[in-house]
Structure formats: structure tokens, C-alpha cells
Amino acid sequence: MSSAVVPDHPWLLPGSLVPAAVRRRTPRDWLVDAMAFLLSAAWVLLFVVDSSSGSPQLALPVGPGWLTEVDIVLGVLATGALWLRRRWPVGLAVATLPLALLSVSASVALLVVLFTVVVHQPLPLAAALVGWHLVTAPAYTALHPDPSMPFWPTLAWSALFIGAVVAWALFVRARRQLVLSLRDRAERAEAEQQLRVDQARQLERTRIAREMHDVLAHRISLLSLHAGALEFRPDASPEKIAKAAGVIRGSAHAALQDLREVIGVLRAEPEGGADPERPQPTLGDVPALIAESRAAGVRVAVVDQVVDGDAVPAAVGRSVYRIVQEGLTNARKHAPGAVVSVRLAGGPGAGLAVEIGNPWPVGGTGSAIPGTGTGLVGVAERVTLAGGRLEHGRTPDGDFRLSAWLPWAAS
């Protein structure tokens, strides 16, 4: 029986399971409904055969013979009405209330309706329906005496059977509510993880924007300084004027390059009273970063194949520093004691490649250093904004590798 959660419905309790009346039945719904219909129809057929036999084994209505025929008609109608239990479960339960007192052949159909209400409807309504069946059980037993069993044992068996159906329905109800609860928790956890990823990306964008702001301000200040020198020294030699003009041209070109990188990245203002941030590290600070890791006990092997490292653009150098920093941090967290290899290669026009690798930890366990797992998300965002590529994961040799390529335009 498929179900859905409908919040804030006027006749539903919060979080109650309700039948999906507004949608089409699934193949599983059709199968369950067909089995319920066939089970009830088989009971009606058994009642018909038993009533026409000379020595009936089932409880027949006390009174004229036409009451048996009426009972059969009521059983057929109740069996056919089972196809409506998904769309109008409450209405069907109310309409079949008198049958709990009058009809034998409708017994299975009534139990199916009772099961449906207990599973899908609010518990007060289900309790009222169960109470009706228990209250009418003595009168039903008196009107339909069992030829092979006394009154009280028959009544006890009826109550026990109703209790078994209710217990089964409550188990199904609890299981479905548990499944819905677990599904809701999974969806919330996924949404929270996506929120953390988005926050990491936004923080990385903010950090890049701040770095670009500092670099751009530095370049423009240099440009202003040389332009001011030309203004106050109009009598300078042509060689000095040409040199200053070249510096101005180079600074303006570099400033435009940095401006292209920062476009689209919003800069969040630091909180009031916060100390100004220190200059951001670049490629030249990577040796100090590696020395710091070695001092902390990490074994690092470095291969530096960068051509003309002093000419690396500041933005590219900062990205390389962050990538190496993240790779060393991951190695300390997840593969303590392993040898970490750092390789830098590239040059103007060919781009700059960074690769950090370490053996996969034995048993897949690392240290208990806390972390949210968003460091690689920030690095990926940085590399993407720079127009590069990033790959990370386990290699065919069983090692972990973090590699990136960043564009480095020729001079």
C-alpha cells in the first residue's frame, strides 16, 4: 500500500501516513489490491458453498433463509468496494460499519478496511474503528452462532483475530514511518553537505577576491608612482622616460590580467575592527611551506622543474601554494608517516603543473585530525576560476595523487 505524507491537512495528524489518492496506482498497488480482492472474494464464495450445503460449518445468520441471501449480497458489495479503499478509506470505513454486526461474508473485506485505516489514518480515528469492531463482536457472535464452538470461546477467537490484524497494521505503520524518517534524515544530510560545499566555494571565492584586491592595489600604486615621476621630471632623459613608460605599460597589463580574474568574484568586507591580512603567499613561499611540514615530522621529497620561477604570475603562484598546502595537509591527516612527493614543472606558455602524491594508508585509516572534507572543494573552485584543471583520487598503483594544471601565458 503506497502512501505519502501530506502536511497540515485538516483531518490528519502531523506526519501521518495517508493513501495516495490523487495519483495512479503503481504495479505494486495493483498487485496488493488484487490480492485483497481475491481473498475477500474467496471468502464470499466459501460462504456461498457452505450455506448451500446440508450441514453448514460456518456461522449463518439466525432467522429466515433470505437473510443468508442478503448476507451474500452484502459480502459481494463489500468485496467490490475494496477497490475504493485508497481513494475514500474513511468513507468506506463509515459505510461498512453496520456490516460488522450483520454480515458474515463481508468479514474479510471489513478486516482489509480496518487494516487500511490503522496503517494510513490518524490513530484516534483508527482506535474508534477498532473499538466499534470489538463492541459489536458480542452481538455479532450472538446473531451468528458458531455450530461447533460455544459463545465465549467464539468471542475470544474473534477478539484475538481482530487484535492480530491491528497489531500487524501497527507494525506496518511504524515501519513506514521509520522509512520516511530515515529518508528525511538522508535528504537533510545531503542538503547540509551541499550547503557546506557551497559555503566552501564561496569562502574560496572571497579569499581569491581579497588576494586579487591586494595585488591589484599594489600594481596600481606602482603605476601611479612611475606616472608621478614622469610628471615631476619632464626634463628626464629619453632613456629614463622610455624605461618608466615600459614599467607603466607592464604594470597596466598585469593589472588588467588581475582584473579579469577578479571579475565576477564578490569581495566581502572584513569585519569591523579586524586586523589587516598579511600579504598572501606565492610560489616563492612554497619552500618555506615544505620546510615547515618537514619540521612537523612530514617526510617530503621535492622535484622543482619550473622554468624561470621568478616570472610566475602572482595569481598562479598563490594557487600553487594553496594546492601544495592542501596536499600536505591531506597527507598529514590521512597518511601519517608516509613519504609525500611534491613535483612542480612548467614554464611560460606551457602552463604550470603541480602534483602531490603519497602512498595509500594501510587499512584505509589515518589520524584523527578533524576536518569537514571541503578543502579539496575550495582548491577545485580556485583552479576552475583560474582556468585550470584539477584531478585527485587513487591511482592504479594504489597511491593517492592530487594534480593540477594552471595556465601560464608567455611573456
From TrEMBL:
The chain crosses the membrane at residues 30-49, 65-84, 96-119, 151-172. Keywords: ATP-binding, Kinase, Membrane, Nucleotide-binding, Phosphoprotein, Transferase, Transmembrane, Transmembrane helix, Two-component regulatory system. GO terms for cellular component: membrane. It catalyses: ATP + protein L-histidine = ADP + protein N-phospho-L-histidine. GO terms for molecular function: ATP binding; phosphorelay sensor kinase activity; protein dimerization activity. Pfam families: HisKA_3. Its EC number is 2.7.13.3. It is an enzyme of class 2 (transferase). InterPro entries: HATPase_C_sf, Sensor_HK_TwoCompSys, Sig_transdc_His_kin_sub3_dim/P. Residues 204-269 form the Signal transduction histidine kinase subgroup 3 dimerisation and phosphoacceptor domain. This is histidine kinase. It comes from Micromonospora auratinigra.
